[in-house]
Amino acid sequence: MVMNKTVTDFILFGLTQDTEKQKVVFGIFLILYLLTLLWNTLVMVTIKTSATLGGPMYFFLFYLSFADACFSTTTAPRLIVDALTQKKSISYNECMTQLFTFHLFGCMEVFVLILMAFDRYVAICKPLRYTTIMSQRVCNMLAILAWVGAGIHSTAQIFLALQLPFCGPNVIDHYLCDLQPLMQLACMDTYVINLLIVSNSGALSIMSFIALLISYGVILYSLRNHSAEGRRKALSTCTTHLIVVVIFFGPCIFIYTRPPTSFSVDKMVAVFYTIGTPLLNPLIYTLRNEGVKNAMKKLWCSKL
Question: What are the TM regions of this chain, as residue ranges (predicted)?
């Protein structure tokens, strides 16, 4: 049941209150956000229009780029607009909506990374059965399960947020609505809710990170039986995936697996995984993947 609240809107503190620094924030994050949309859209269009990028790995890469674009859009536009406004207010309903979509697309990215690791495991460790195991029907079902799982996670998060009563200060010391900064304003003991958050978001982050490390460890161990050329290609792909996993899960684990306390670096850590990671993912995959680079060159050269 939703508890009674007297606060109808919140004030987002943002990254800084300094007027000159806010102008810098506006310029930098506008450029980063536009580049994020550009790169991820470029990857999605290339995969959808290229006849050579029809495998399961690119199927999941499409969903990763889609999740990245949406994940960044849940936070970046408001951060950019708030950098030019004096009163950075957000209504209660808008705050809850942002929290829900933020966790929906963030969790979707987690599940897609797991599916990409599973795809690489099958491709490298069971190559003769790869096309049978990773058929288009199986890939579609896995994508649907990822969406369902992300929906369950984000629903659990919004359920916890709706239990928080707000009857006093309404200034959120952050640039987005998330459960940790909201708990700082709640008129109740948030110990139990924080335990639920740690057991939900925290456990999801840690278990997914460990599962991914184990899967890539198994993949790397199995490479000892491959040819030198096969090892080089597999190592290149796995290295790319591991870079993405570390830069995404590191900040998430830092934020969601600790007591309800705030640190001065929280907002910068959040910037890294909410805005930095969605920008870096397509760059990492395109720069280290010859198939995607060649398809992009062919597609855009023909368009031009």
Answer: 24-45, 57-80, 100-118, 138-160, 203-223, 235-256, 268-287
Asked if residue 260 lies in contact with residue 194, where contact means CB atoms within 8 angstroms, the answer is yes
Q: Are 295 and 61 in contact (CB under 8 A)?
A: no
Alpha-carbon distance of 297 to 262, in angstroms, equals: 46
* 4 found inside a domain: no
Total number of domains in the chain: 1
Is 221 strand, coil or helix? helix
| In a domain? residue 169 | yes
69: Cα separation from own chain's centroid: 9
Inform me whether the pLDDT recorded for 3 exceeds 70: no
Q: Distance between CA atoms of 32 and 132, rounded to whole angstroms?
A: 40
Q: Which domain holds residue 200?
A: 9-303
- Residue 303: the pLDDT is 63
CA distance 214 to 243: 15
Give me the amino acid identity at 83: A
Decide: residue 41, CB within 10 A, 0-12 exposed, 13-18 middle, 19+ buried: middle
Indicate if the pLDDT at residue 1 is higher than 60: no
How many DSSP H helices and E strands does the chain contain?
Answer: 13, 3
3-state helix, strand, coil in the chain (%, to 5): 75, 5, 20
Q: Which pLDDT score is estimated for 250?
A: 87
Are residues 63 and 147 in contact, defined by beta-carbon separation less than 8 angstroms? Answer: no
Residue 183 sits in a domain whose CATH number is: 1.20.1070.10
